[in-house]
Amino acid sequence: MVETKISHLAVVHPNAKIGEGVEIGPFAVVDDNVEIGDGTKLFSGAVLRYGSRIGKECVIHPYAVVGGEPQDLKFKGEETVAIIGDRTTIREYATVSRGTASKGFTTVGSDVLLMAYAHVAHDCEISDKVIIGNACQIAGEVEIDYNAILGGGTLVHQFVRVGSHVMIQGGSRLSKDIPPYTLIGREPAIYCGINIVGLRRRSFTKEQIYLINDIYRTLYNRGLNNTEALQVIEEEYEDMPEKRIILDFIRQSQRGIIRGGSVD
User: Fold this and answer.
1) How far apart are CA 206 and CA 182, in angstroms?
2) At what angle do helices 226-236 and 206-221 cross, to 10 degrees?
3) CA-to-CA separations, 12 to 50, 63, 122, 158, in angstroms, rounded
4) Is the peptide bond before 188 cis (omega within 30 degrees of 0)?
C-alpha cells in the first residue's frame, strides 16, 4: 500500500474520499462531497470544491480550482459535479466549473493537459488526450473531442463543438463548430487545411491522410454549398471510418462549421 500524505496545513473535509497514495500539500483545500483517486497529487494552494471527482494519478498545481460554482445566473445551487479523468494535469490558476441543471456535470477526460489560467465552464465535455493551452477560455456546454489541441489564448463560444485531432492556432476566436482533423488559424479564424503533422504523429496512414485531405478539398474548394459537398463526398469517396466521422460531425452540427478561405 502506498502511503497517503496530507499536510497538517491542508484543509480537508472529513467526508472527502481520499484514495491510496494521494499527496495533499500545505494550504490545499478539499471540500465536502469530493472524491480523489489513488496516486493523485495536489500542490500547495490547490482547491477542490464541492462535487469534484478526481481520477487516479492526476496532478493539480497551485491555485487551480476544480468544482467551483458555475458562472451562470440560472444556477440555483443544484447538486452537480465536475469530473476529471485519470492522469490529467491541471496547471496553475486553471479553473473547471461544475455542471448546472442543463447536464448536471462538467467532464474533463483522461490524459488531458489543462495549462495555466485556462477556464473550462459549466457543462463542458472535454475528451481524452486534449491539450488546452495557457489562458484558453472555454464557455459553457462546449464539447472538445479526442486529441484536439487548442493554442494559448483561444476563446470558444458556448455550445461550440471542436472535432477530434484538430489543431487551433493560439489566439483564435471560435464561434462555429470545428470539423475533425483540421488546422484552424488566421484572424478571423478559418479552415487552413488538415492537421497533417498531428495525423502523422498519431500514425495515420498515407491513405487515411489523402482521403481526409480530398474530402476537405471537396467541402471547401470546389465551389459547392455544404449540402452539395456532403452528397458528393458520400457518393465519390471510399467508405472509410474517417469519411463517416467527418460526415456525421458536419450533419450533426448545430451551429454550422467554420468557413473556408484562401490558404496561400
Assistant:
1) 16
2) 150
3) 12, 15, 24, 33
4) yes
252 DSSP 8-state letter: H
Residue 177, SS3?
strand
CB proximity list for 201: less than 8 A, separation 6 or greater: none
Strands 182-185 and 190-194: antiparallel
Output the average pLDDT for the chain. 96
Do the Cβ atoms of 105 and 123 come closer than 8 Å?
yes
Q: What is the pTM of this model?
A: 0.95
Residue tagged 489543462 (cell numbers)? 114
Q: Count of CB atoms within 10 A of residue 221's CB?
A: 12
Of the pLDDT bands very low, low, confident and very high (cuts 50, 70, 90), residue 264 is very low
Give the DSSP H/E element, type plus range, for residue 48: strand 47-48
Cα 191 to Cα 172, 184, 256, distances in angstroms: 12, 5, 13
DSSP assignments along 207-220, one per residue: HHHHHHHHHHHHHH
Residue numbers annotated as active site = 122-123, 140
Per-residue confidence band for 262, with pLDDT thresholds at 50, 70 and 90: low
User: Which residues contact residue 202 at a Cβ distance below 8 angstroms, ignoring those fewer than 6 apart?
Assistant: 147, 165
Question: 42: which strand partners?
Answer: 24, 60
